[in-house]
Design brief:
The protein has 66 residues and is an alpha+beta fold. The protein has two helices and four strands. The protein has a single domain, classed as 2-Layer Sandwich (Alpha-Beta Plaits), CATH 3.30.70.
Length: 66
């Protein structure tokens, strides 16, 4: 099982995660900081969650295998 973690304090609001994995991430309207929509992504969203973590310019996303 895959778990997604986000260090909100490190997020620079670039939006790469939302573009890459819109079913897993969104951004707050007030400041653009990413939020997790699906902490444990379903199998069909696992690859996009991994890609979002790899593309995050602030390295604010961690993927944990459980």
């Amino acid at each position: 099982m895959l778990k997604v973690e986000l260090e909100e304090d490190n997020c620079i609001s670039a939006g790469q995660c939302v573009f890459t994995a819109p079913d897993v991430f969104d951004q707050r309207d007030e400041d653009g900081v990413a939020v997790i929509l699906e902490e444990y992504p379903s199998g069909e969203h696992e690859e996009s969650a991994r890609s979002a973590a790899a593309l995050c310019p602030a390295a604010a996303i961690r993927i944990l295998e459980q």
